[in-house]
Amino acid sequence: MQENQSKSLPSEIAVRREKAAKMFDISPSTFDNWIKQGWMPEGIKIGLLRRWDTDDMRSSWNAMKEAKSNSEDDDDGENPFDHIIG
User: Fold this and answer.
1) Within a 13 Å sphere around the CA of 41, how many CA atoms are in the beta-carbon half?
2) What are the CA-CA distances from residue 2 to residues 9, 10, 31 (Å)?
3) Fewer CB within 10 Å of terminal CB in the chain, N or C?
4) pLDDT tens, residue by residue, 21-74
5) CA atoms within a 13 Å half-sphere pointing along the CA-CB vector of 7
6) DSSP assignment, residue 80?
7) Distance between CA atoms of residues 65 and 59, nearest Å
8) Nearest-5° angle of CA 6, CA 27, CA 57?
9) 8 Å CB contact between 35 and 56
């Protein structure tokens, strides 16, 4: 039972900024922009260190996905290559 529980837990509870960005395959500056947009949490500062809770980041990611899927305007406009391909 203990072994199954440990497999479902994240390997890290909190990560630094660079690792948080890497988890989403984005640059740290893009991650900073996501924080400014309110799409990601600001992290928790303890002493001189700031760390991001991996569960909070997953929740924020799921909220972004849900907002996107509920968006009425999923079309970004005409694709300039539509007339070439199809």
Assistant:
1) 19
2) 11, 14, 34
3) N
4) 999 999 999 999 999 999 999 999 999 999 999 999 999 999 999 888 887 555
5) 4
6) T
7) 10
8) 35
9) no
Tokens matching residue 28? 């740290």
| Sign of CA pseudo-dihedral 37, 66, 24, 49 | positive
Structure token pair of residue 22: 């890497």
Q: Is the Cβ–Cβ distance between 14 and 52 less than 8 Å?
A: yes
**Whole-model pTM over 0.70:** no
CA distances from residue 56 to 1, 20, 29, 76 in whole angstroms, order as listed:
26, 11, 19, 29
- Locus of tokens 């899927």: 69
